[in-house]
Amino acid sequence: MDGDLGDFLRSRRARIQPEEVGLASHGRRRVPGLRREEVAQLAGVSVDYYIRLEQGRGPGGPSRTKSGGVSDAVLDAIARVLRLDGEEHAYLYAVARPQKKRERRRTAPRVRPGIQVLLDGMARNPAFVLGPAMDVLAWNALADALSGFSRMPPARRNIVRHLFLDPDGRDVYPDWAAVAAQTAAHLRLNAGARPDHPGLRDLVGELSLKSEDFRRLWADHQVKACMYGVKRVRHPVAGLLTLPYESLSLPSEPDQTIVAYTPEPGSETAERLALLGSWATTGA
Q1: For the chain, is the Cβ count within 10 Å smaller at the N or the C terminus?
Q2: Residues 6+ apart with CB under 8 A from 166
């Protein structure tokens, strides 16, 4: 995931036309959007400083913090010029100031027993726990009936890998293109916050090699936290389900997130999920 800062800045200045920020466009441009010197001018930094930042060579001079990173003022000015939204702004901070890399032991993540009890208590709502690489770490019975987590090999029990690499990944989501774009944007946000996470590095490398769709979406450098929304899911028994979802970060477990589907009580989807849960329990 090296080079993310430069690639991100280039992708964001490419989407802004000079006229949008009050600059005259003189003649034909070799690349779309703002030039590096124009971003530097509008942000109030030297051209050399901005070029070094975009090339990942580490800018020097007075705009560094005491710890050696880029100052808040510079990052905020660049974010303003490039019209970054809140999540993009946070991502810029993360990739411009990566935490000191440290070797992480590859230990299997564990979900506390109390979290599993919480999942099991949500009998009417499919619910599961995701790690930062979107590995499925735990689930309740209804989530298993819906997605078949227990039947997947542990190494393949990953939301992103299933979406882009499994043969039936496209069949599950009628709105596959939108779900794929949202998932890639959420994964990039996680990767920016955890540049040394081995599971994230390995997953991005694998998908970049094996999925043309993922390579295209990853190259767009979109960042978006998918903490709530609606997904449509096609199930072979329950049929087409419209599933609102909520994601809850666990303060005591910063690398784990509970995702719960929350269909409105009495809705067609809620009734189909109830039948699915009954079918899974009785096998009838």
Answers
A1: C
A2: 156
- CA proximity to 161, closest of 219, 211, 221: 211
Q: Give yes or no for a contact between 74 and 58, defined as CB atoms under 8 angstroms apart.
A: no
**Contact (Cβ atoms closer than 8 angstroms) between residue 163 and residue 180:** yes
> What is the distance between the alpha carbons of residues 169 and 159, in angstroms, rounded to a whole number?
10
- DSSP symbols for the chain: -TTHHHHHHHHHHHT--GGGGT----S--SSSS--HHHHHHHHTS-HHHHHHHHTTS---STTB-TTSSB-HHHHHHHHHHTT--HHHHHHHHHHHSPPPP-----------HHHHHHHHH-TTS-EEEE-TT-BEEEE-HHHHHHH-GGGS-GGG-BHHHHHHHSTTHHHH-TTHHHHHHHHHHHHHHHHHH-TT-HHHHHHHHHHHHH-HHHHHHHHTT------EEEEEEEETTTEEEEEEEEEEEETTEEEEEEEEE-PPTTSHHHHHHHHHHHHHHH--
Pairing of strands 253-261, 127-130: antiparallel
Q: Residue-wise pLDDT tens for the chain (284 aa)? A: 446 888 899 998 888 888 777 776 666 667 778 888 889 888 899 999 999 888 876 655 555 554 457 888 999 999 999 999 988 998 998 888 876 555 455 566 789 999 999 999 999 999 999 999 999 999 999 999 999 999 999 888 999 999 999 988 899 999 999 999 999 999 999 998 888 889 999 999 999 999 999 999 999 999 999 899 999 999 999 999 999 999 999 888 889 999 999 999 999 999 999 999 988 777 64
